[in-house]
Amino acid sequence: MSKTTTRLIKIIKKHASEEKSYFEAQKLIAQGADVRTPFSNDYSMIQYVTEEEARLRQTTPFKAENCRRIIKLLKNRASELLSELVLSNNGKLDEMRFLVKLKASCYQQQVYGPLGLLGKLLNQSENHVRLDVVRFLVETDEEAKFALTKEDDLHQTCLSLSLNNPKSSAQITNYIQEQLNLLFNKIASTHSEMDVNELSQWICRGADPKTVDEDQNTVLLNAVRANNVDLVRVLIANGCNAMHKNKDDKTSIDIAKNEPLRNAQLLAILSEQVINNKLKQLIAAKKSSLKKEEVLQCLEEGANINGRFDNNDSFLHYLITHGGTQEMIAAFVNEFNADILATNNAGLRPIELCILHDKNPHNVLGTFLKLPRVSTDAFFNNVSQKSIYQYAIEQGLKDSADTIKAELNARLWACVTSANTDDKRNQSVLSEAKKLINYGAQINDRHDIDGEYKKWSAFHVACKTTTKSFVEYLVRDLKADCTLSNSDKDHPISIAAEYGQLEIVQFLRECRGVQINVVNKKRDTPLHLAAKNHHYRIVRYLILWGADEEARNSSKETPLVSAQMSETNTEQDKIEKDKIVNFLRSLAFSKDHNTRDEVIQPTKLTIDLDTCELLSHSDVHEIQPHARDD
């Protein structure tokens, strides 16, 4: 016996209840003291401290607490030694059993995560995994057995690790599967208080609900016998067969009917599933030839359109994976009220299955996306935390991704073009627009439908119809391109100038890359467009910031000529036109007589909306480069 072990025994025997003993024992164990060494009377260290703790628990609780700290220290060391034996592949089962007597844990979740020591063993690649060691871990410790039902952060299970590890074997995999199935089959009687949603995950992790016990009862039959309504509901939703018969030739419905205390709710769930199976079989058989009348008949008989079965799929899931037509899918949602957000065990909704199963030209997916009940929120999966556009990209389904993107862009167009000059109302529009862009819509997409706005972006329309704050949000937060042109080569600043949006013109003029003398297809500048549309204040503003009043469009017209040739429909238009013509003439006159500054600068400062407080003209070459985001 080593000196450190001798000293550890002395501390345990004489000073276990003292506070400093924990630190001394910890130090000795780190130096190699062996916690397996018994006292002279064959008492183990942990056995002695455990009895000491029980003796002191009532009389001196603080001393009992010191003992508990020592106990934990001894347990942890025994567990470490057990891990070393298990992972060394030496198969010393007697030594392992002895360490378990010393309270070593076969699970060790805190050290190895949810799959415990068994998961660590199955995940190593140095040694072949021994079946006898696996059996020892599973059958010795109840907690270690439940490691079979867990998954780690990488969604691996003990079963999947064994399947994928060349150092494991088919015998080990089969054993793990059998133990998992047995645990699941008996869960209604052994752990009735367990969360049923957690139990549904066991199926995803490999538990087979078809497994039967010695009486040929499935887990569903055992849940019915235990009168566990919540578990029955979950099992039905995961494909358990309500018509399976045990060795007494009884189905789950038979058992429910013959229970001393009949549970009406339980019977209703089971009876509904029988009818649901009829609809399921109908969908599988008819596929694309399924008719609405056939579905209606099943629903009238009591089938639940939102019932669940294999993999927690709904009928809408099932229809999509079994060749359902776009007309039938629309009927399921619009007429039969199928839940479009129903999520199966894989975290997939019907819309994700459309992405996976629809083929070119993606008519089914296109129809689904345009269903009235498919809101913007449906484009995001709260389980996977991914948009369906991202999901399609990750699955390598470019055509599906393009279909989704086109729908998102169409919705963004409809959203932004619904905005107006009411900034309070526009808040909800901006919130919706941001959501659509987060899900994959493109703010700079050009509208591709014939008409007035062909090849316009939503931002172009916003510059025409909304407010400065709305446009500013699109640029600052949603990254709209201030320099993007439409099919007529009109830039946002041109559109704002044409439609009298002075504040938007002012904002855009300060944005990086925006040119005040940019031209469109007809070579009209923003000044031409403002002049011919009678926006006097914008004309003054553009001139102030260097707009070229001598620029000529494709018709050889200067802004002055464009203004002179423009038609007016109202008295106000005529007044504005006259102001513009006089103003632009004065510029030409002042230039000819080298007195431009004196002509356009008032002798007295007047705050006047007509002049926008614009005091003097500046030549282009005198303007220093400046941008809002410099």
Automatic annotation (TrEMBL):
The keyword Repeat applies. Keywords: ANK repeat, Repeat. SUPFAM superfamilies: Ankyrin repeat. This is Ankyrin repeat protein. ANK repeats lie at residues 215-247, 522-554. InterPro entries: Ankyrin_rpt, Ankyrin_rpt-contain_sf. Gene3D superfamilies: Ankyrin repeat-containing domain. Pfam families: Ank_2.
